[in-house]
Amino acid sequence: TPPAEKYEYQAEVSRLMDLIVNSLYSNKEVFLRELISNASDALDKLRFLSVTEPQLLKDAADLDIRIQTDKDNGIITITDSGIGMTRQDLIDCLGTIAQSGTAKFLKALKDSKDAGGDNNLIGQFGVGFYSAFLVADRVVVSTKSPKSDKQYVWEGEANASAYTIREETDPENLIPRGTRLTLYLKRDDKGFAHPERIQKLVKNYSQFVSFPIYTWQEKGYTKEVEVDEDPTEAKKDEQDEKTEKKKKTKTVVEKYWDWDLTNETQPLWGEVEFRSILFVPAISPTGKDDLVNPKTKNIRLHVKRVFISDDFDGELFPRYLSFVKGVVDSNDLPLNVSREILQESRIVRIMRKRLVRKAFDMILGISLSENREDYEKFWENFGKFLKLGCIEDRENHKRIAPLLRFFSSQSDEELISLDEYVENMKPEQKNIYYIASDSLTSAKNTPFLEKLLEKDLEVLFLVDPIDEVAVQNLKSYKDKNFVDISKEDLDLGEKNEEKEKEIKQEFGQTCDWIKKHLGDKVASVQISNRLSASPCVLVSGKFGWSANMERLMKSQTM
Ligand code: ADP
Ligand code: MG
Known about the structure:
There is one protein chain. By secondary structure, the chain is of the alpha+beta class. 36% of the residues lie in helices and 21% in strands. The chain has helices at 11-23, 30-52, 87-94, 100-114, 195-206, 231-248, 339-344, 346-367, 372-392, 397-400, 418-423, 440-445, 449-454, 465-474, 497-518, 547-557, and strands at residues 5-8, 65-70, 75-80, 136-144, 151-157, 162-167, 178-185, 213-217, 220-225, 256-264, 274-281, 299-303, 306-309, 325-330, 405-408, 411-417, 431-436, 459-462, 476-477, 480-484. It has a 9-stranded mixed sheet with strand order 1-6-5-4-7-3-2-8-9, covered by helices on one side. Strands 16-15-18-17-20-19 form a 6-stranded mixed sheet. A 5-stranded mixed sheet has the order 10-11-14-12-13, with helices on both faces. A hairpin with a 6-residue loop joins strand 4 and strand 5 (151-157). The radius of gyration is 33 Å and the shape is elongated. The protein binds adenosine-5'-diphosphate (ADP) and magnesium ion. Magnesium ion binds next to helix 2.
């Protein structure tokens, strides 16, 4: 057997390993994500090269990743049938920081040190191969490039300044092509060698890696990651399935209302490349909408198909749209990007903008469905969230407003849209009238309606507590202001000064008399032309709370 040769790490590598081990100890599990993404990269490279050199695949046709665990001895092996490494590759890639994420990381670290910064920077970068030493005190890399007829073994230990490389001679250990990484876990980290633990981590981080991943369970390998369909194919399939289902039977409950797949790959300067799948579930998963604490873990962010996070608290996607579920995958973010970094990231802001646009396109699509029932059901489940959007997201008022639905004085059984209201407006009508109330019945019976009904003006019935605030936030729709018909200054545009003078003379004293008797209980008593049958009505001041709001506020403080 040729002897193992000893090599010193490039100085930066030792420093990097120190840093990784000391800064990431609380988040050790990232090692698996890093190693799987390296395996996936190696498979990608091979697949790419094999297009022009198909003979590269001859020793093993399958492109996959296999993870085996030995929980008794605390050993994990990760095997890929990718491009492998030659002896020189091993020296260049695992002993030196030649390029890629790690090199950038060290440079940034140096710049930040020069600027008096600290080590937190590590969170921004993929930490790569050396993250193996987070959990292992010995790492053995046995690798065979299809361009070499020899297999080599790289071996390194935690906290060491040197590593060794030797040729693999044991026939038992020979692999046709690719790389086998063996991690001898540290005493306290042997728990990672439990098959269920690995299985869980793989599911979580690597669901969308584009090669199958098998994990070793008691009885053999289990496929964790099922791939090889083109996502656009998936879309076609699902749509076919959808129409198929519709054809077959109407009673099948569909699992989602709509979904959308983006392929945002415009590599323009400054653009962000990412892909996403969003969908609107058919029913609210929580059963009951929770407006105060919307479930925000609705969008799962992946970088190069490796799961990064679903915990953004509204940074990547607005909270009020949290009923939309989705997956996002970007190549433009570093693997180990932290939440703090995401919050500041321009890339995330751009993604958010586009995701929001997509979500609204999708909801608009449902609202335009020929089957009116579709949107009615959607509205029943998620309408509240859109109303919340009127309050929380001024920027998107134009997108939200057309999606709102209300009952009205002319449609108290079927919800109408603001567009329908506007179409139904009288030629001289300038405002969108509404009355907020605690129920449809009381809205229908309010004396405020009389004059408007007489004039055949439609009035929206706002019967959900959040409706009134939502509409007040919108202020207007298509240049028509929302006007509360219970407010003091309601002007229906019928000034007849002669008549008013007459009436004032006749009833002025009556008003004074009533005011004297009611005292502080009312702000003023006035003659009004807004009623037709009722003798009087209590109205709210122009700048005061509406009766409905007052009711709401009372119920909040009690
Ligand atoms: P990065 O993946 O950002 O390049 P890493 O530290 O993760 O940095 O890996 C360093 C290099 O080692 C890779 O660029 C690749 O050339 C090589 N490498 C690591 N793992 C494998 C593997 N499983 N198969 C082939 N090459 C690998
Ligand atoms: Mg890597």
